[in-house]
Amino acid sequence: MNFWKPGPRRLRLRLRPGINMVDIIVDIETTGVDPLKDQVVAIGMIGEWGGMRIFQGTNEKQILQEFWKELRKGHEQVTIVGFNIDDFDWQFLKLRSLKHRVEIQHFQKYVQRKDIRLILDANRLKKGTRLSDYCAFLGIPDGDELVGSMIPQLFAEGKYEEIKKHLEFDLDKTLQIWKLMKEYRVVE
What we know:
6 helices, alpha/beta, Nucleotidyltransferase, domain 5, five-stranded mixed beta sheet, globular
């Protein structure tokens, strides 16, 4: 009897010995939901150690350039983590960067790019589950009065500080969920 034997699986990611992966939470704010028409107005990132960075302004190309430059700085083996990052943030980051001819860093799905929403609800049992829904479920306080759908209007009105505060809230909530997931071994 012959059995099919798969060849050795090779990950494209090459980990260097002695260098740990660094988890960085990433979130973006945009003027809408279509990366072909709408633009990125703010990008935030925070590491598990703290150190939040916000890239914001009216020049999308500059925001993207600064974000990618910072992400590469001192972090050879980065895992980016986000809530709905695969279906939303990553699509915007790669397409808007391509539009502006900004070189990106590719992150291999499931290995270097982890989507909290997908991990917690892989079958997408309930469409439209939001970050705030998971925060309420897990008992994580949510002091943010804004929702993402308000960002286009805030941007049009020049209320950049409110956008920044909303992004900071989202980054903090996402980081808290990620830490819980790691603490209770939902992820490693």
